[in-house]
Amino acid sequence: MRTHKLKTETVETKTRVQMVDVTARIQKLISANRVESGLVVVVVPHTTAGITLQENADPNTQHDLIKKLESLVPQVESYYQHDEGNSDAHVKSALVGSSVTIVIDKGRLVLGKWQAVYFCEFDGPRERHLHVKIIDEGSGDLD
Amino acid sequence: MRTHKLKTETVETKTRVQMVDVTARIQKLISANRVESGLVVVVVPHTTAGITLQENADPNTQHDLIKKLESLVPQVESYYQHDEGNSDAHVKSALVGSSVTIVIDKGRLVLGKWQAVYFCEFDGPRERHLHVKIIDEGSGDLD
Amino acid sequence: MRTHKLKTETVETKTRVQMVDVTARIQKLISANRVESGLVVVVVPHTTAGITLQENADPNTQHDLIKKLESLVPQVESYYQHDEGNSDAHVKSALVGSSVTIVIDKGRLVLGKWQAVYFCEFDGPRERHLHVKIIDEGSGDLD
Known about the structure:
3 copies of one chain form a homotrimer.
Chain A: E1 2-3, E2 7-12, E3 18-21, H1 23-32, E4 38-43, E5 49-55, H2 59-72, H3 87-96, E6 99-105, E7 108-109, E8 115-121, E9 127-136
Antiparallel strand pairs in A: 1-9, 2-9, 3-8, 4-6, 4-9, 5-8, 6-7
């Protein structure tokens, strides 16, 4: 087992709600560190953003996901008590989740044909961060 | 630490929306590889399916989960732009999640008394896959 | 790589729906076991509870999350078939998730400034459990 320092990536978002494809950046870290096999845990250290795997072929799927989330969790509700006007972003973060764990095999992220890793901004625009932790099994023979 | 090749399982779904208990298959891989202690990450490489832990005692809990998800995320919404008619499946996949990480202890998946691992089909019927990655701590003494 | 036995924590909840900050307990386990670097997987072995990262600064964010979940998934729906009256708790558990994977770096949980780990009771009050699995990279030099 080889160990790797925690890496941190910066994501600049442009609008209040936005999905940003970060797959290539994560793959680049895997490749630069010559990781053959293991896991990568990608963590969002924010409570008004999330991370998810989603289709990367048709951008309309992102549109539809964002619209459905807005319809289920609007920015204003009579019962919200948090006074920053971003309670919806906190809820969306809890629903979508704050981290993904992806398998690494033969030096590549194991993703489906249409899957990409999306940082989900729910209260932007902001400068955000992603922590990337690689668990590296080494390059020995696998059972 | 022992390393194991990535395993892939096939799941055949029969209807558009269906929960399939895959616990026994994952346990079988753990047992066949004589894994005593570690983690298993089970990944769905699809963007219109998911995976979750849920109760296995009363099938009505599956019925109620499926119905509630359909009520929150119907197949048709006036604002959907993706033209394959499965935007709801993409959203449900993001909400339920595309992977689970389960602890292995004394050769067994660590699950609650009523917990099982369910593959969640949201746009079937289809032939689907599950990737299973074992992180094996070996069988040495634990601190 | 050092290996650690699976730890189990008890959480006593006081009301039907409640978020309990368990961050300090998990950090205590990390510190007591002198873990410098790795992952911790925190698992809820229950199907009517969940675990999530959420803001710990303003308790109103917890209020708003709980209220929004109750509004999306009320305790009573005409179509629920499970006869224990807690179908909503099963659904909330699936939406929020049953485990979190957190990075450990320099002996500390890697969390954002406002992030804490919350056990989410959806069908209390009950005595609940949390399984805590540490994946310890050891204290060698990191690449």
